[in-house]
Amino acid sequence: MRKLRIGITCYPTVGGSGVLATELGKKLAERGHEIHFITSSVPFRLNKIYPNVFFHEVEVNNYSVFQYPPYDIALASKMADVIKEKQLDVIHVHYAIPHAVCAVLAREMCGENIGIVTTLHGTDISVLGQDSTMAPAIKYGIEKSDIVTAVSDALKQQTYDLIGTTKEIETVYNFVDESVFKPIDTGNLKEQFGIREDERVLIHVSNFRKIKNLPDVVRTFFKVREKMPAKLLLVGDGPEKHRVLDSIQTSPFKDDVLFLGKQENVAELFGISDLKLLLSENESFGLVLLEALACGVPGIGTNVGGIPEVVSHGENGFVVELGDTDAAAQYAIELLQDEEKLIQFRQAAISTVQTKFLAKPIIDHYEQLYERLVALR
Ligand code: GMT
User: Fold this and answer.
1) Is residue 166 included in any domain, yes or no?
2) Are 144 and 155 part of one and the same domain?
3) Does residue 101 surpass a pLDDT of 90?
4) Residues 341 and 196 in one domain
5) DSSP category for residue 197
6) Atom of ligand 1 nearest to the CA of 119
7) What is the C-alpha to C-alpha distance for residues 89 and 77, in angstroms, rounded to an integer?
8) Which of 124, 184, 301, 372 has its CA 20 to 30 Å from the CA of residue 333?
9) Nearest CA to ligand 1 atom 19
10) Which residues contact 33 (CB under 8 A, 6 or more apart)?
11) Does the structure's ipTM exceed the value 0.85?
């Protein structure tokens, strides 16, 4: 395949869509493509120098007349600059708002016939798609993109239901970097956290937003803790953190909940974990679940959005109804008390990634989409 010049726009701070976009860019660069990130800051997983990867910062003018700094216009202008100067073949935007609309505007501005790929990630549809001030712009961005992908069948269906578009949407699942997310020897890390060998470790990783339903994670853990020695690792940070902290203060098990804040090396934390909990109110995919599975950690997730496409009930984890912490705890207890079953689930977790979410075929798929667009130019 010929080498392409690909622009990528995403939210560069912590979040699944930014992670996926960055990992995709890195993998495409390894294949020899020239990758141009056009973002407001360096994407957080772009943490070293990668050959073929370039970063173009979007700077927003804070002129006093602006009540709100016009990020969208600055992004579109920067995209138009980079498209022209670097002669991009394709621009791939992650998250519909404002990125898809900015890409369309940039194409108009620079007058180049560039292909636009938009990947829908979740809240751009499930939350913003319900907002009448946003829905028309999302629909416009989707319909003016040349190719639209969604990270799960559930999200694709939700887009049709909420946005009312007839645009063809292809499901392209998320993937993880298997060289990072794999079972690893963590030495005495468990001990360093003060966790005894006989204690089971449950883990939750997220941006601590309301949609992640932290109260149910803690409730489930406490029910498990009543039956066995265990610790809960809460990894990440966000608006719900203090509410959760307050809510556990009266529990006799409060010292068994460890708040670790934002962490870079999540794979190591999965390395000391036995079970991942993701009990979200909505989740288009649940990239962190996939990261856990790749590390050999089974997951319990809610029966919402794309989670059942990632977690196979009774094989690599369990799917429970939203709010049913009794069921979540019961499944957790049964699994964590049965070493043989846990080993079986750990193996199934790894093979799910190998069979359904391997990076290579998914990146091949994106490459084919780009190639399709380039052939049309
Ligand atoms: O919910 C988040 O953690 C952030 C959000 C984002 O846009 O980064 O995540 C969405 O995209 C991820 C990557 O495709 C998915 O794995 C998440 O499930 C999705 N979040 C929601 O749908 C709530």
Assistant:
1) yes
2) yes
3) yes
4) yes
5) T
6) 14
7) 17
8) 184
9) 122
10) 3, 4, 5, 6, 52
11) yes
